[in-house]
Write a structure and sequence with these properties.
It comes from Muricoprocola aceti. The chain is an alpha+beta fold. 25% of the residues lie in helices and 29% in strands. The protein contains one helix and four strands.
């Protein structure tokens, strides 16, 4: 099943991109480029959501990107994570 959560990215003084998910506590990513940070965010979100489903059986609500306040230099991207909900189930 596909889940889509917004992630916020910014570039630090060394040129490294950092991303975080406002809805997924402590789910972070980094990358030398924005594309790499987005790719790493996808993997981080898949792992985070899989653990959350296994441990708690539910996922946090998704923020509307329009409601998120961005600081200067931040950009927002929706990250899609494909999660297998049942063993043996293929999408």
């Amino acid at each position: 099943m596909k889940f889509i959560y917004p992630a916020i990215f910014s570039k630090d003084a060394d040129g490294v991109f950092h991303g975080y998910f406002p809805d997924l506590e402590d789910c972070l990513s980094t990358g030398e480029t924005l594309d790499e940070a987005i790719e790493n965010a996808n993997e981080a979100a898949c792992n985070w959501l899989s653990v959350e489903l296994e441990e708690d059986g539910h996922l946090p609500p998704v923020s509307d990107p329009a409601d998120l306040e961005l600081k200067e230099g931040e950009i927002i991207r929706n990250i899609a994570a494909n999660i297998r909900l049942f063993d043996g189930y293929d999408e």
